[in-house]
Predict the 3D structure of the following.
Amino acid sequence: MKSVSWRTVIPALLAIAGLVLVGCGAQDPGQGAQDNGGDDLSGYIDVRGSDTMVNLGQSWAEAFMDRHGGVQIAVTGGGSGTGIAQLLNNNTHIAQASRPMKPEEFQEAAQRGVDVHEFIVGQDGVVIAVHRDNPIDRLTVEQLKGIFTGRITHWSELGWEEGGAISIHSRDASSGTHAFVVETVMDGKDWAEGTRFATGSAAINEALRTDTAGIGYFGVAYVEGTKALAISADGGQNYYDPLNEEHVDAGLYPLARPLFFYTNGAPQGAVLAYLEWVLGDEGQSLLEEIGFFKVNTAQTEQNEETFKKAGLR
């Protein structure tokens, strides 16, 4: 994972020191600032959550701050679950999440008086990756389940006779990607004994560059020097590629998923301006440059409904 930008972190350090007051439920600088046109926009925005999205979020923040010098945006990771927890604790303006909020999280938000609004800001195809010298280039979801739960332990069971014992690389439990794979692939079952857990997608990609017998998963934007496998959800009749935007956009790739912003209250001021910029042409183009996929028509319509319900359209 690339290093954290000081420009996006310094405001967070100031907030911790008490020099910047962030009262997310009130009209704090980020929510209450007025856009008087162009560079007059000002405010402070705290963004926390998904490690899959942290590089993307930092890039978005840098580009937006370049256009609006009066806005400060702090972007930190820690996992989707961490970002959502901070939102429910009234400690952040935006939770970045690579998984949808759970019903019990919405229920907790209601109990705490936190008014959560969900926006889809991009799409990801969770990549199942291996070392580039691994001759296996496709797997079924059922085979993946067998690997991750420990039922399949050697590459020879999948056709690579010299592959040896399979080593599994997973994200840790705070990760939205971890939760997504457990639910989508593993039916909630436990990980195989000996699974190695990492805090970030880049760390898994790096491990698979040297671990010839390894297999792991991460967001599509993190593929570098490893091989992404085609995946089938119908027992091997049809395989789809996570690097193919059409396969992800149409939901054909079995591990396609939306990427979310959750806001604390109806977005206002600088937060609203930032969200609309992220969903606009510039923000979506930057998302594609980084390696994710832009929102599709149905997701755009869903976002518009959310804006309407929040009284913003």
In short: The chain has two domains: 6-123+258-309, 127-254. The longest helix spans residues 54-67.
